[in-house]
Write a structure and sequence with these properties.
The protein is about 40% helix and about 20% strand. Strand 5 and strand 6 form a beta hairpin. The chain is an alpha+beta fold. It has two domains: about 160 residues, Jelly Rolls (Sandwich); about 110 residues, Arc Repressor Mutant, subunit A, CATH 1.10.10. It has a six-stranded antiparallel sheet, covered by helices on one side. A three-stranded antiparallel sheet has the order 6-5-8, covered by helices on one side. It has a two-stranded parallel sheet with strand order 1-3. It is built from ten helices and eleven strands. The chain starts with a strand and ends with a helix. One of its GO terms (molecular function) is DNA-binding transcription factor activity.
Length: about 280
């Protein structure tokens, strides 16, 4: 139930991995690893789970995730082929003191900020193109290309943290295992009624202890997190279907339309109908 630990490797003996990921769809595969991960979505839309945060992704989206930050990218049902360019590297892939050198201060700052994950809001076309070319390069050319991309995005003023300030990569295994058990369960069950007593039982805690634990570990309440999952589900339905708003609310887990409208506006700053008008056909 906890996120799968991955140990990315390379087939050519180089010190970092760069590859194109293509599939009919990206399935929910909650995992973490010691490498930084730079992911550019090239095809398909879906939902990105990083730590406690749930957001939609689309082609062109670029994120940098720090070490041991649990994450997964899950395609929307029936979305079609999914594709991404993924680069994974450790902090010392060019030597233990490389990023401590004065000329790489901006890159060190970028990597430090990525501990909460970073999403880049307006990545220039040339940066996306450079990333897409990386898997085709080898040896020194690939390494120089990666450093160039990191340098370019380090100055991106649109970069914003993905997870909230209340979340950090798990301080210990016991906390992380409980959080991940809950996250995986809620990813599958959030459109149905969610009862704190039942969720607490999954991690063998009393409801009161679980409530305190969840807020401390996630930086938000269980209700807040479930609402985030439900609203993102609603966003996909609003953008990809012509279902009436009442049906979107019900399929997202809301039986009360006024509650759905209120929660949606709190998280998105728009009414559901306004969101649909702005995002129709973008999923």
């Amino acid at each position: 139930m906890k996120p799968r630990y991955e140990a990315p490797g390379t087939s050519d003996g180089t010190t970092f991995a760069c590859f194109i990921r293509r599939d009919d769809a990206f399935g929910f595969s909650w995992h973490h690893h010691q490498e930084y991960e730079l992911t550019l979505i090239t095809q398909g839309s879906g939902t990105r789970y990083v730590g406690t945060t749930v957001e939609r992704y689309h082609p062109g989206d670029l994120v940098l995730l720090g070490p041991d930050l649990p994450h997964t990218f899950a395609s929307e049902p029936h979305e079609g082929p999914a594709g991404a360019v993924v680069t994974q590297f450790r902090h010392d892939f060019l030597g233990p003191e490389f990023f401590a050198l004065p000329q790489f201060r901006s890159l060190q700052s970028l990597l430090t900020r990525s501990t909460r994950g970073l999403r880049f809001g307006s990545t220039p076309t040339e940066v996306r193109a450079a990333l897409a070319r990386l898997p085709q390069l080898d040896g020194a050319a690939r390494t120089v290309g990666l450093l160039d991309v990191l340098h370019r995005v380090s100055g991106d003023t649109t970069a914003a943290p993905i997870t909230g300030p209340g979340y950090t990569a798990a301080p210990n295994g016991a906390v992380r295992e409980r959080v991940d058990t809950v996250c995986r369960h809620l990813q599958q069950a959030h459109t149905a009624p969610v009862h704190q007593e039942e969720v607490a039982a999954l991690v063998h805690m009393s409801p009161t202890s679980f409530s305190r634990f969840f807020r401390q570990a996630m930086g938000r309440t269980l209700t807040d997190y479930v609402n985030q999952l439900r609203v993102e589900t609603a966003c996909a339905l609003l953008a990809d279907t012509s279902l009436p708003v009442t049906e979107v609310a019900a399929r997202s887990g809301y039986q009360n339309l006024s509650n759905f409208n209120r929660r949606f506006r709190e998280l998105k700053g728009l009414r559901p109908t306004e969101y649909r008008a702005a995002h129709w056909g973008t999923g």
